[in-house]
Amino acid sequence: FVNAGLMKLTQAIGIIFGANIGTTITGWIISIKIGKYGLLFIALGIFPLLFGKSNKVRQIGRILFGVGMIFFGLKLMSGAFKPLRSNPEFLESISYFSGQHYGAYFACIIVGCLLTMIVQSSSAMLGITMALATTGVIQFHTAAALVLGENIGTTITALLASVGGNINAKRAARAHGIFNMLGVITIFCLFPYYIELVDWIVPGDPNATNAAGEFVKIAVHIASGHTLFNVSSTLIFLPFLNRLANLVTRITPDKEKKEQHHLIHLGDPK
């Protein structure tokens, strides 16, 4: 929309603020134990997809089939991560990231950022993080730090999309990156208190297990922390929306175009 001139820069930044909050619904969907319904959704979607007579029916089938594949894939992924919690080599390799100090938090943020840049999907990385946490491979504070890094890494998608766009599209993409980075820096400085706040808001111990050895409450803690981060960042920086627009305008100035020599008018010869 910005690239097409249908939206101003300040409007685009406001949309970005709202989109950051809206994307947290993915974490809540993943946190619900819906993996067992994956095959059901696949079965409900495959028949309209293959045998639907109208395009509307086929589109509904695609939606059900896609959602079922996501749910079923998350279930398979969670099962695949379970052996890692008893693998001494893997546990030794991530021992530093499991520490409760700022060095470990910073390392987790960097790892989450890099992995999300590679995958180019914060939702996919959020699902992987939750799968690691619910199987006991990582603890809540490690998962929360990874999610912060994923919020920075997801901005690479917008930055890549702005390549070849006009000046306002590039400014909007950079505003997205700056906003997420400033939000992560703010929460990082208060990270221990941020973890305590999430534990206070969400009842239950995130590291408690059930009879099957699953960490049933940690996924809700991660989803709550993700939502809390995006909502609080938006509320903090919303009053400075115009200043953010001015900042990205200064760091992404209009390039002066040299005037091309051209013929203005050719009169009839007399």
How would you characterize this protein structure?
The chain is an all-alpha fold and 270 residues long. It has 13 helices and no strands. Helix 2 packs antiparallel against helix 12, helix 10 packs across helix 13 and helix 11 packs across helix 12. It is globular.
Features:
270 residues, mainly alpha
Structure summarized in a few sentences:
By secondary structure, this protein is mainly α.
Average residue pLDDT: 80
H-E order: HHHHHHHHHHHHH
Q: What is the C-alpha radius of gyration, as a whole number of Å? A: 23 Å
Compute the number of strand runs.
0
Write the layout of secondary structure elements.
Layout: H1 9-22, H2 25-31, H3 38-51, H4 55-81, H5 88-93, H6 102-119, H7 122-134, H8 140-153, H9 155-161, H10 167-189, H11 191-201, H12 218-237, H13 241-251
Helix pairs in contact: 1-10, 1-12, 2-7, 2-12, 3-4, 4-7, 6-8, 7-8, 8-10, 8-12, 9-10, 10-12, 10-13, 11-12
